[in-house]
Amino acid sequence: MLLHLKTTVQQDFRSVFHAFDEQLFRKLAPPYPKLKLLRFDGSAPGDVVEVELQTGIKAFRWTSLITEREIKETEAWFVDEGQEVPPPLRKWRHKHLVTKHGSGAIIHDIIEYSTGYKALDAVLYPVMLAAFGMRKPVYKEVFRQI
User: How far apart, in whole angstroms, are the C-alpha atoms of residue 41 and residue 47?
Assistant: First the structure.
């Protein structure tokens, strides 16, 4: 299943892209499930980000490997791919793309996920949309014009 969210922000794309660090990662965490950050290497190929999703009933490990990173003239991105994902997920790929948009930028969250069952993927879609939609106001606040 593919989910593509776009958020327009006021800062230039290079500044926005370079701000994807541990501090921003913590700000983007959803209120539920609670995330416990276990490891955050960064956003270069080979870096690992590991969290524990704490549901209150059970904790689930989520480990992602950064597999790509590129900065071009009008866009920049990095990709994290799930190495260990919580059930019911089986596949996770998240491209963090920032594109130039006038004097500002557009942040694209491009997420490909799969549970192995198309019907379950469809059921999860509104959950994923809500969870990643919560990032929009955070992005707008963090990247407002200075």
Answer: 5
Cβ neighbours of 44 (radius 10 Å): 10
Whole-number Å distance between alpha carbons of 17 and 143: 11
What is the bridge-based pairing of β-strands 104-114 and 2-9? antiparallel
DSSP secondary structure string, 90-108? -EEEEEEEEEEETTEEEEE
For 18, phi then psi, to 5°, come to: -70, -10
What is the C-alpha to C-alpha distance for residues 16 and 81, in angstroms, rounded to an integer? 21
d(CA 2, CA 114): 9
Note the pLDDT tens digit of each residue in 55-85: 999 999 999 999 999 999 999 999 999 999 9
44 contacts: CB under 8 Å, gap ≥ 6:
66, 69, 78
Q: How far is CA 86 from the centre of its chain?
A: 15
Residue 101 and residue 21: Cα distance in Å, rounded? 22
